Amino acid sequence: MTGDDEEPQEIKAEAQQRLETSTAAEAAAKQALEQAEATVDGLTRQLERAQEQLRRAQSAADLPARLAAQENVLRLEGALSVFREPEEPALDETEAKAIKVLAAAADLLEKDSKTAAEALFKEVNEETAELATLFGVPSLKSVSIDRGARLKIFPLGSKQEWFKDQTAGARLRLRIAVAIALLRVGRANGVSTHPGLLLIDSPKSEEMQSADAHKLFKELATVAAESDLQVVITTADFDLARAALPADSIRQAEPGASLW
């Protein structure tokens, strides 16, 4: 150990000592609080019993018992009124300052996070609307995704709708548009990408025209080439697959045979 090492060691030892002292004080305060709570509970039960005795001693014949019960009630009420729970130990000045700094930092980070999220969601919304329109969602003005993963649809010249209210074909187009938008915006901003694997089963079965399906296939092939996304699409339209996808990405079964 050199002289340069002694100061950090002393600081570490002092910090450890403060931690142990604080922990012990906390344990003592907790024990005192539990004892105080038990005392209060006991006095409260005694007071309830005394009040019950007072209610029963109503006749003149029971006057001595009534006076005794009333005196007992007053005594217990007085005991409860002057009872004080132990105060929590005061924070060390350094600890109090550290807590304030951390609270301020947490508040600042929360504000920065919300600001950054708003900017990212704006990009995702714009990209989603553009792609969904490209894929054939009709009369679409804009979309809005919130932190609860709820998708609002804003058609041209109409009131706001929800994703669940769309047709099966529109929902499929929107799902794929959102997935691609998340990938592109995440990649452009250096944040985690989503998803890593995309499975699409027979997209043309959901009221999708060949022209829209061709655009969708081409866009998926592009985004797969741009990122690490793996896309698996099943279709019986081999002409569409050959026209829209790279030849080395197509796996086609022979007539009457299994794919694998």
TrEMBL record:
Coiled coil location: 26-60
Keywords annotated in UniProt? Coiled coil
List the SUPFAM superfamilies hit by this protein, alphabetically.
P-loop containing nucleoside triphosphate hydrolases
The answer on whether this UniProt entry bears the keyword Coiled coil reads: yes
Which InterPro entries does this one have?
A: P-loop_NTPase
Protein name according to UniProt: Membrane protein YkoI
In which organism is this protein found? Answer: Streptomyces griseochromogenes
Lineage, highest ranks first: Bacteria, Bacillati, Actinomycetota, Actinomycetes, Kitasatosporales
